[in-house]
Amino acid sequence: MKLQVLHRTHFKYGQPVRDSFNEARLQPTEDHRQLPQSFLLKVLPSTRLSHYRDFYQNYVHRFELGEAHPDLTVTATSVVTTRNGLALANDAPTAPISALASTATDSRCYDFLQSSQHVETSAEAWRLALDLAGDETDTWQLAQRLMHAIFRDFQYQPDSTHIHTTTQEILRNRQGVCQDFAHVMLSLCRSTKIPARYVSGYLYNGPADSLKGAQASHAWVEVYVPAHGWIGLDPTNGQQVDGRYVKIGVGRDYGDVTPLKGTYRGTTERKMSVNVLVTMLDEHAEPKPLKPAS
């Protein structure tokens, strides 16, 4: 699939602010499931951009605005070709859970077996994970079992949580959004010694689809299956990742791949609006614009 993503963030401040320092993680990465075709990042007021790769090899753009400004608009435009189809058959046998012991000393996996800022491997998560695991002995089947339990038992409820909501609160209340469900799945996977990492990106909702979390920043999980590598699972929609997903980056949790974060001097009064539009393009399609910020 050839997908275009337009992601615009607009800040309106109560009074002009200054000394604004920012990092954006908005550029799609390249891997075996997707190939970025183009990327453009625009910042208003205009300023100089620099970029680098972070510890997890995500693209990061830095910019700063020293002069006073009443607004800030950051618009990222991406075109990505994705690979459709599943990475691994849902009923495929893979590696026994006992094979996961070797991942504890694997540099690719170590960070994704630990608790992190937004993911707690609590006793509550451990008990739930063991209950859900039952007598399952296959790593891939266990990971899918955990995903389907979240999809079945947790309610997708926008505005029911915030960035500081803990995984224990989500486990207790059984509601949230894609970011929350990704954090819960990370907690369950890590409690059962499955390496699991947070993925930030987008989801295309085609004309016949009814997927949750589309037309906004989306989040899912990649689990490490010995001999097969990292495979994406989306607990919000109860499915394996396919060509409808555009991947921006990975980390231990949301804090490692926040789309836009920064600091500034001035008022605490501000209004933020975020608009995301994901469309499918044919080879000759013209990019579709977002509506002007209000």
Task: Describe the protein in words.
Helices cover 16% and strands 38% of the residues. The mean pLDDT is 92. The two termini are 32 Å apart. The strands form three sheets. Strands 1, 2, 3, 4, 5, 13 and 14 form a seven-stranded antiparallel beta sheet that branches. A five-stranded antiparallel beta sheet has the order 11-10-9-8-12, with helices on one face. It has 294 residues and is an alpha+beta fold. It has two domains: 2-82 and 258-280, Immunoglobulin-like (Sandwich); 97-256, C8orf32 fold. It has four helices and 14 strands.
Could you provide a short overview of the structure?
By secondary structure, the chain is of the alpha+beta class.
Query: Order of SSEs, N→C?
Result: EEEEEHHEHEHEEEEEEE
Q: Please give the CATH architecture of the largest domain.
A: Roll
Radius of gyration: 20 Å
Number of helices: 4
Q: Which outline best applies?
A: globular
- Report on the biggest sheet: 7 strands, antiparallel
Span of the ends, CA to CA: 32 Å
- Class by alpha and beta content: alpha+beta
Low-confidence stretches: none
Strand content: 35-45%
Average residue-wise pLDDT: 92
Estimated helix fraction: 10-25%
CATH T-level topology of the largest domain: C8orf32 fold
